[in-house]
Amino acid sequence: MIKGLHYVPKKTKAGVVWHVYAWRGGPSVARREGGRKPLLTAAELKLAIAAIEQANAPEQTSLNSLIREWEQSPEWKALGEGTKKTWGSQLKQITRRWGDKPLNVWNDPRMKAKVVSWRDSRAETPRGADLGVMVLRELLKFGVLRGRVLLNVAVGIPTLYRGGKRAEIVWTEEDIQRFAAEAEKQGLQHVIDGLRLCALTGLRREDLVTVTLDDVYDHAIVKRALKVSRGRRRTATMPRIPELDALLAELATRKRKDGVRTLLVNSHGKSWSGDGFGGSFNRIRDAADIAYVDPDTGERRKKHLHDVRGTFATRLILAGLANAEVADVMGWSVEQVSGIRRTYVDQSRVVVAMGERISQGGVNRTVNREEAAKN
Question: Fewer CB atoms inside 10 Å of the end CB: C or N, the chain?
């Protein structure tokens, strides 16, 4: 028997008439005259099931329907697991705000102002607010592509988070040494391994914890990136420089559980999860108080694992690669690489050169004074 069928007996002059509904308040599926509570025929049960399925079918004109379509699409399936998890949490926020609203409201340009108001209502967590707008923009982009909506009103909305562009932030050698000292103090050598590998390869977190011994070739590490960037999944290729070779030799000596092939392992000899490594990394960073101080405002911002990629970029610059070549390796714009070159490479070289010239000038002045005294 189908759960939820609603039976209503009605007395008439001729006796009792039974009315059966698919659910209380639902459509009628059977009518019987007289007797006890009736049993439905196969045809009547089929009619009830069809009514229930139709009632539970997703609404095809709401934003929720577009979200469900997106989550079943090739575009969504091509995203990395980490991205799906992060974006999925934002989709829940979008669902709570607009999920039951009809899709045609998104064809009204005035919806842009409502999206901005939604962003502002989440201003206490600016990065989350910006991410929510970004995910909504990708959702509507999918909707425009599939002809479900006409406009993408989430395009062109400025971000709230001032630190959103972090390519100018890198980990200095002093930062790395302080981090290593704190990690050793806490007995977390395995986390230092991750920091060092990131600084020598520039891998993103999810790729860092999944790169394996099988990805190491004679002259390079070749890793199929988990993150989809600009519509395609990049293959990261890192040349095996002497510093990286030395680290790889160390990592090969770490104890591993049977079958574990990742370069990085935790204290139990198992592969790290992205969240597990990130959490351990952040605890050490916070204990070591590693932060970036904005030269213009004096604002302090915690340095992230992702910022270690900037350290790798400086290594590439110092190795003699042009900005365009570094940008290609890092997946950045040439302008971002130029900013790192100006801030961390060219300025340092200028200061060193100035020091050498001043030192040389000082020697010349001393010699000149001695010669003058003789005369």
Answer: C
* Half-sphere exposure of residue 191: CA atoms within 13 angstroms, side-chain side: 24
Any idea what DSSP says for residue 269?
Answer: S
Structure tokens belonging to residue 360? 């040389």
* Two structure tokens written together for 160: 């709230």
Q: What is the pLDDT of residues 343-374, one digit of tens each?
A: 767 654 544 444 555 666 554 544 454 454 55
Reported pTM: 0.57
Locus of tokens 């930062």:
175
Establish how many alpha carbons lie within 13 A of residue 217's alpha carbon, considering only the half-sphere containing its beta carbon.
9
Q: Where are the domains of the chain?
A: 6-56, 63-145, 173-331
Six-digit token string for 9: 């007996």
| 235 contacts: CB under 8 Å, gap ≥ 6 | 222, 223, 224, 225
In angstroms, the CA 142 to CA 63 distance is: 12
E strand segments, the chain = 6-12, 15-21, 28-33, 220-229, 232-239, 291-293, 300-302
- 173-331 folds as hpI Integrase; Chain A (1.10.443)
Distances (CA, A) of 296 to 57, 299, 344: 56, 8, 16
* Cα(89)–Cα(96) distance, integer angstroms: 11
CA distance 180 to 203: 19
Task: For residue 101, give the 3-state DSSP assignment.
Answer: coil
Which residues are paired to 311 by β-bridges? none
Contact assessment for residue 221 and residue 238, using Cβ atoms and an 8 Å cutoff: yes
d(CA 297, CA 133): 27
What three-state secondary structure class fits 38? coil
pLDDT tens across 87-126, in order?
Answer: 999 999 999 999 989 999 999 999 999 999 999 999 988 8
Task: Give the model's pLDDT for residue 143.
Answer: 95
Question: Which neighbouring-strand residues pair with 224?
Answer: 235
**SS3 (DSSP) at 99:** coil
Instruction: Give the burial class of 218: count Cβ atoms within 10 A of its Cβ; 0-12 exposed, 13-18 middle, 19 or more buried.
Output: exposed
